[in-house]
Amino acid sequence: MKLRFLQRVPVSVRLAMAALLGVLGGLAWYRFVGCRSGGCPLTSNPWLMALFGAAMGLSLGWPDGGIRSGRGPKDPGQEASEDRNVV
Fold first, then answer.
1. Does a structural domain hold residue 86?
2. Looking at the predicted structure, is the pLDDT value of residue 80 above 80?
3. What is the pLDDT of residues 3-31, one digit of tens each?
4. Cβ contact 61:18 at 8 Å
């Protein structure tokens, strides 16, 4: 399913939405799965889990530069093979 309406949303807004969803996911992880004993440094702190969730949301929501749609840069090996054929 293509989400064409997301193409009209600016990249900064999409990244902010991805970070916000990541923060919410990190806080949900802290609430429902997190470490209650305090022995786990990441999952026992809601601030660290929110920061980690934001980083994960940004990494998943980061624009790929059109590589998947065929608009990205060509493979460097492909250019070299094209040059060899032109003699």
1. no
2. no
3. 677 678 888 898 999 999 999 999 999 88
4. yes
Domain residues for 46?
10-63
* Euclidean distance between CA atoms 8 and 18, whole angstroms: 16
Which of 23, 45, 25 has the alpha carbon at shortest distance from 34?
45
pLDDT in tens, 31-55: 898 887 878 888 888 899 999 999 9
Q: Which two tokens stand for residue 34?
A: 């997190």
Sign of CA dihedral 18, 70, 1, 10: positive
Q: What is the DSSP string of 64-85?
A: -TTTTTT-SPPPHHHHHHHHHH
Q: Which residues, in sequence order, are CB contacts of 55 under 8 Å at separation 6+? A: 22
CB 14 within 8 A of CB 63: yes
Total domains in the fold of the chain: 1
Closest to 49 in 3D by CA, of 18, 26, 24: 26
